[in-house]
Amino acid sequence: MRILITNDDGINAPGLEVLHTIATDLAGASGEVWTVAPAFEQSGVGHCISYTHPTMISEFGRRRFAAEGSPADCVIAALHDVMKDSPPDLILSGVNKGNNSAENTLYSGTIGAAIEAAIQGLPAIALSQYYGPGNIALRNQFEAAATHGADVIRKILAAPGAFDSHPYKLFYNVNFPPVPAAAVKGTRAVAQGFREGGTGMGMKADIAPNGRKFLWITGAPQNVPSGEDTDATANLDGFVSVTPMRADLTAYDRLQTLKDAIE
């Protein structure tokens, strides 16, 4: 198996090293693991692409490249330049430092890479490691992902119709719980949740020494459940969450009502 890995934390992020180990396990002795990752951290850029300026790409080693762009840029660069003569069989994004459960999914560059891979017609899985009191002090905070990652991916790949022929192809969002590897209770297929009362980004103003005003993005509490049978709730309960997703944003539950109203 030929696997492409990327992330949004940057080429030197420890989570990317964890993902390389996972991918190497999956690829097998005769497989290949290629890395095309952002030269610098790109957290929170979502599915952004560098449409208005070029992206410089540099070779850091054998099958290892850094691009001055977003995670989605990295996927495009890999498919149409770096690996254009030998495309990957699978694209993995992560392992993100912090969860991409619930509403975090919508901001995530890790997810953005998986979206771009799916749009390009390739199987893709995004992986993220939840942080919390149970693992923040561990020597290896990615322990749960490192231990269980390859097995979870194999289960996804073995599922019937894992990557269908729908125009907006399936991709998967995997989040590992904020606990040591030995404390992981299992894996749950769940929906994307929403953290009621603890959601959304804010702004904090600060005045620089030169008198100029700057605004800093502030996050929301992460230890908030997201509803029954959803990702953040499963993670906080000690389970790996797996959520099947598509990039189709149509609200199908409202489509007929809208047709009746405006047509």
UniProtKB/TrEMBL annotation:
<dbReference type="InterPro" id="IPR030048">
    <property type="entry name" value="SurE"/>
</dbReference>
<dbReference type="GO" id="GO:0008254">
    <property type="term" value="F:3'-nucleotidase activity"/>
</dbReference>
<comment type="function">
    <text>Nucleotidase that shows phosphatase activity on nucleoside 5'-monophosphates.</text>
</comment>
<dbReference type="InterPro" id="IPR002828">
    <property type="entry name" value="SurE-like_Pase/nucleotidase"/>
</dbReference>
<keyword id="KW-0479">Metal-binding</keyword>
<dbReference type="GO" id="GO:0046872">
    <property type="term" value="F:metal ion binding"/>
</dbReference>
<feature type="binding site">
    <location>
        <position position="43"/>
    </location>
    <ligand>
        <name>a divalent metal cation</name>
    </ligand>
</feature>
<dbReference type="GO" id="GO:0005737">
    <property type="term" value="C:cytoplasm"/>
</dbReference>
<keyword id="KW-0963">Cytoplasm</keyword>
<protein>
    <recommendedName>
        <fullName>5'-nucleotidase SurE</fullName>
        <ecNumber>3.1.3.5</ecNumber>
    </recommendedName>
</protein>
<dbReference type="Pfam" id="PF01975">
    <property type="entry name" value="SurE"/>
</dbReference>
<feature type="domain" description="Survival protein SurE-like phosphatase/nucleotidase">
    <location>
        <begin position="3"/>
        <end position="195"/>
    </location>
</feature>
<dbReference type="GO" id="GO:0004309">
    <property type="term" value="F:exopolyphosphatase activity"/>
</dbReference>
<keyword id="KW-0378">Hydrolase</keyword>
<dbReference type="InterPro" id="IPR036523">
    <property type="entry name" value="SurE-like_sf"/>
</dbReference>
<keyword id="KW-0547">Nucleotide-binding</keyword>
<feature type="binding site">
    <location>
        <position position="8"/>
    </location>
    <ligand>
        <name>a divalent metal cation</name>
    </ligand>
</feature>
<dbReference type="GO" id="GO:0008253">
    <property type="term" value="F:5'-nucleotidase activity"/>
</dbReference>
<dbReference type="GO" id="GO:0000166">
    <property type="term" value="F:nucleotide binding"/>
</dbReference>
<feature type="binding site">
    <location>
        <position position="96"/>
    </location>
    <ligand>
        <name>a divalent metal cation</name>
    </ligand>
</feature>
<feature type="binding site">
    <location>
        <position position="9"/>
    </location>
    <ligand>
        <name>a divalent metal cation</name>
    </ligand>
</feature>
<comment type="similarity">
    <text>Belongs to the SurE nucleotidase family.</text>
</comment>
